[in-house]
Write a structure and sequence with these properties.
Length: 202
């Protein structure tokens, strides 16, 4: 019985000590998400301005890359340079895979925040609930009310982080899919044009 009581006390101590790091992480993630929201709005406005009423196939065929996002524009310019080199097909494939990996990797933080935010909110809810119930058994209603406030606010903050992150991730995933599609289309057009000009391969 003494060993069980020792384990209970140890687990309670560990659980109580996690509350401060959880509150710190939630606060830091809120600040990061606010700054990311400004960056996201800038990207949204920029993409709307660049890709408004353009035909990607026609633009890529005419090699007018100015209306594409910076990542696609830079990839198209690199594709043109690679198409003039020996073993161009392998170099182009490597470039496309590298660019695609970079674009998807940029979404990892949002993907993690979708799960981390609600998880931290749940932890921040359960810890004060335990201390609040302990205070209730001692008749300390003031501490109980304070713990309940912390419990419910951390839940709201955690769920908000997850929902907003999911919205940003969904929109940026669509942008990434569109950019990858345009990169692959540009590679086919540029390499096809290169193959049809055998004099430049010599």
């Amino acid at each position: 019985m003494e060993i069980t009581a020792l384990f209970k006390s140890f687990i309670y101590l560990v659980s109580s000590s996690l509350l401060t790091p959880v509150l710190f992480l939630l606060s830091a993630l809120i600040l990061w998400l606010i700054m990311y929201s400004g960056n996201f709005c800038g990207l949204w406005i920029n993409r709307k301005r660049l890709t408004n009423d353009i035909d990607p196939l026609l633009a890529l065929t005419n090699q007018t890359f100015s209306n594409f996002p910076p990542a696609v524009r830079q990839c198209c310019l690199q594709l043109i340079e690679l198409s003039k080199q020996p073993h161009a097909d392998l170099a182009v494939t490597h470039l496309l895979r590298e660019q695609e990996h970079h674009l998807w990797k940029s979404l990892d933080r949002l993907k993690m925040l979708i799960r981390i935010g609600p998880g931290l909110g749940l932890i921040g809810t359960l810890i004060p609930m335990g201390t609040g119930l302990a205070a209730l058994s001692q008749g300390d209603l003031t501490r109980l009310s304070g713990d309940l406030v912390i419990a419910f606010t951390t839940t709201v903050v955690g769920l908000t982080l997850g929902l907003v992150s999911y919205f940003f991730f969904t929109v940026q995933r669509r942008w990434t899919e569109e950019d990858v599609k345009n990169m692959e289309l540009a590679a086919e057009i540029i390499m096809g044009d290169y193959v049809n000009r055998p004099d430049e391969r010599q």
